[in-house]
Design brief:
The structure is a homodimer. Chain A has three domains: about 5-110 and about 240-310, 3-Layer(bba) Sandwich (FAD/NAD(P)-binding domain); about 125-235, FAD/NAD(P)-binding domain; about 325-440, FAD/NAD-linked reductase, C-terminal dimerisation domain (Enolase-like, domain 1). In chain A, about 25% of the residues lie in helices and about 25% in strands. Chain A has twelve helices and 26 strands. In chain A, the strands form seven sheets. A five-stranded parallel sheet of chain A has the order 3-2-1-7-19. In chain A, strand 14 (about 220-225) and strand 15 (about 230) form a beta hairpin. In chain A, helix 1 packs parallel to helix 8. At the A-B interface, helix 8, strand 22 and helix 10 of A face helix 8, strand 22 and helix 10 of B. Chains A, B: Belongs to the class-III pyridine nucleotide-disulfide oxidoreductase family. Chains A, B: Its cofactor is FAD. Chains A, B: This is FAD-dependent oxidoreductase.
């Protein structure tokens, strides 16, 4: 008899889980419930369509709906799951009776933390998430002259750049003293902030949101902040992502300090026959074990594959995370892996720092840009515990590498004696990682 | 009394050695002899000036001559060293008497292997090396209609692309069945060869050079090959680089199977008080220990620093090499680290292969290009022993990383579970290294 597997959520985690479950158990019945009209598109691309770097929304779709049906994945669109019961192994779907499952995967993702200020219900507040809503918002953007982005989070950074590209007068407010305050060190993000100023963006640091005021039609007109009142016909709410855990909490599943579901290394939740993946979970950090929630689509997809494989009777483990990250911000790329200096200090993790600024190509090759690398290491052993970078090119590949280097116990000595490609159009005589490591070794 | 240190050669190795020697022993007298008019420029940039990607030759200079004088480095330009004697610790300089040294560093670099065919002494044969000659050749290129590049070596590839950019009808001949035959696997270089065809370059594989014929003025007019006679007013001789070891051999220093000087891990030669660095040496490969000669400017510079430090009384070791390499070729970037499939097979090194083609950015982001990664690993342990890649972006950074991964014993399992940055403009959902490793694990 075919195994019946139910997945709640059609994002990267849910779709990853569905594909892996079908691969591990081809005869299984795999059902994906989603409240939305679509699955299998890239929400991460939305800011770039708004910024007119990607020509249209349709290119964000990975596959036609028929492709999922052809793969034997039964996606139930615009269908709300009201709850589930691990005891009776049933899900309760709106407008249907309860239906049974052999294995359940929770992939309900995240919500933006509500601003919690007066005026939250006004029109003109944009929470970037669903592609159909994004298509509607994109038309509205043509008539927006003033916008405020609430919080310089990763999404906030992408949207600031997109709105500036679009010629909109853009302000960003954030309670931290610099952008990406929880993730990034101030020296790394400083060039990004300078480039925003050059792009005409106004930044307000150490600034809290107080409320929104609207016009008679109930549409936002101003944003009240501790740095004064800002005009805005559009507010992008890019607050912290929190786990969309309501269904799981109601079913009695265990959550951790972040609000994310606690899972083991096989993505099993505290309830039998229930797995979870993606932003609804928390995952231990590889350095120190602190739980993390709200990682990337790549993490969600990989976790989905682990959960789907195991739920289908296969065997696959998920590792603690070292979180390589990277993005384009202003006119720069920034990124890193594991701990930055601010995080290490806040967590009381002892560390030494090696920092250097190099270049991305031969110094005389057109397009050459600076690349600043900061490496953090354990004091005596000089084992790498983290890195942060800002530069013109190659930040993604370096971040991937440095995250694995942390995981594998690579030291500043190893990096200081690393060979590097030297070819004028693509690499300079000295790799900035090597120079930073040499600086760290000699401190 | 100040220590007297003599360096023969003003390329990357010699200049690296001079700077490191001054850093390790600031009071030392540091003398650099060079037969040429200049030091401290980047010969690696020459093909890109010829290709008009870099606007002028002057930008290739790193520093004014005064900068070396200010740093206490005494460069003797256009000065030929006739010999040296380790016994009496003297160098013999043309037009001067013998002069003593406390430490000697041989950094005499490479020569192109002579073609060894009739017509070698004709005009119009260009050996890319010296910047003053390159400036003269660059003017000649304006009037060249037909060019032949002898051997699809790394320099040959750069020159083919440069000549094609310049609108010159370019043919390349090579005795191997594909380009970079000694370095690169045929599946990796295939897209490069296709892109050359699109650029109008004509390739002749499995083709040996037979000779050159000239006009009455002694200038080359045709190139005779086993694939017929090719018209050419210019021939770029990009044959294998061989160690310029004549002085060292005359002084009785030991050379290895490549013709490079044998050095220990402190860059000491077989003679007391004599060190060597750069293309005149051979260095053991990290996988299998086979000696390698003719590496990159980055290797030469790093070896120079090790030799200079040790010769000045400091302490610094040089590691076996894993040779990350990379370049722009045709419309692609290619690169790799340690062993490719052809080399591993030729050396009888048992291996498994994991290969995958991914993409450099989100599939919908403008500028996205394929990235093919091939990983080689030891059969049972799955320890990485090499990699080869071709793609649109990020090849240099991946090659650096994979060379260190080979050195540190990282396995396909490690790479298969590696996290990666996902951000539409700079990184795809799945890193091609990870996908290739997953393919290798499951074979």
């Amino acid at each position: 008899m075919a195994r019946r597997m139910v997945i709640i959520g059609g994002g990267a985690a849910g779709i990853g889980a569905a594909g892996a479950a079908k691969a591990a158990a081809p005869s299984a019945e795999v059902i994906v419930y989603t409240a939305f009209e679509d699955v299998g598109y890239s929400p991460c691309g939305i800011p770039y369509v708004h910024g007119k770097e990607i020509p249209d929304f349709t290119s964000l779709f990975l596959a036609e709906k028929q492709a999922y049906a052809d793969a034997g994945i039964d996606v139930r669109y615009e269908t709300t799951v009201l709850g589930f019961d691990p005891e009776s192994r049933t899900v309760q779907v709106e407008g249907e009776g309860p239906s049974g499952y052999d294995a359940l995967i929770i992939a309900t993702g995240f919500d933006y933390k509500p601003p919690g200020v007066p005026g939250e219900d006004l029109g003109g507040l944009y929470y970037v998430k669903n592609i159909r809503r994004a298509m509607e918002w994109d038309k509205i953007l043509d008539n927006v002259r003033h916008a405020v982005v609430v919080e310089a989070s990763p999404l906030g950074l992408e949207m600031v750049t997109a709105l500036a590209h679009r010629g909109i007068d853009t302000h960003v407010i954030d309670p931290h003293p610099w952008a990406l305050g929880e993730l990034c060190d101030p020296d790394i993000v400083a060039p990004v902030q300078e480039s925003w100023a050059e792009m005409g963006v106004t930044t307000h640091w150490d600034t809290r949101l107080l409320g929104f005021t609207g016009d008679r039609e109930g549409h936002v007109r101003t944003v009240a902040t501790t740095d004064g009142e800002l005009p805005a016909e559009l507010v992008v709410v890019a607050t912290h992502k929190v786990a969309n855990n309501a269904l799981a909490v109601a079913a009695g599943l265990r959550t951790g300090s972040t609000g994310g579901l606690v899972v083991d290394d096989h993505m099993r939740t505290s309830a039998p026959h229930v797995w979870a993946a993606g932003d609804v979970c928390e995952i231990p950090h590889g350095v120190g074990g602190l739980p993390l929630q709200g990682l990337t689509g790549s993490h969600a997809y990989a976790q989905g594959k682990v959960a789907g494989t195991n739920a289908a009777g296969g065997e696959r483990a998920y590792q603690p995370v070292y979180v390589p990250w990277g993005m384009v911000a202003g006119t720069w790329m920034i990124g890193g892996a594991a701990l930055g200096e601010v995080a290490a200090t806040a967590l009381g993790v002892p560390h030494v720092v090696g920092k250097a600024t190099g270049i991305s190509r031969a110094r005389y090759f057109p397009g050459v840009r600076p690349v600043t690398v900061k490496l953090l290491a354990e004091p005596r052993t000089l084992r790498l515990i983290g890195a942060q970078m800002v530069g013109g090119e190659g930040i993604k590949e370096r971040a991937d590498f440095l995250a694995l280097a942390v995981r594998k116990g690579i030291t500043l000595h190893d990096l200081a004696s690393m060979e590097n490609v030297y070819s004028p159009p693509i690499g300079a005589l000295n790799e900035p990682i090597v120079t930073a490591a040499q600086a760290g070794v000699s401190t």
